[in-house]
Amino acid sequence: MPPRFVPRALAGLLVCLAVLLTGCSSASGPASHASSAPPAASTPAWARGTATVPESRLPAEARRTLALVDRGGPFPYAKDGAVFGNFEGRLPRHPRGYYHEYTVPTPGSRDRGARRLVTGRGGEIYYTDDHYETFRAVLR
Asked: Which InterPro entries match (predicted)?
């Protein structure tokens, strides 16, 4: 084997490995925090710069909760519709009362669990599955 062939073969192998690893590392599924959104041109201004998830990719319980929000209830939890204070500061800052939160049931949980939908007066919808640590803008 000529000496020049070894570095070229090694470089080619490394490129193939990098391509394979990049393709395998992309997250998918409703629990993913990666953006599943269409290109930025179709992303509403309020959602830009935030991880996104299409409504169709939300867990079934979140889609049912969103349908209840759209209908105005009735809601299964007394705290549904309560003002969300955004104390963590992870959503854009707005006056108190701008955001409201709704419980997304977690199968098997004995309490309200960690999943919530948070809505804003401007039509924004955010989903969190880790009790306000991270949010994804819900795209409809």
From this structure: N1-like, Ribonuclease/ribotoxin
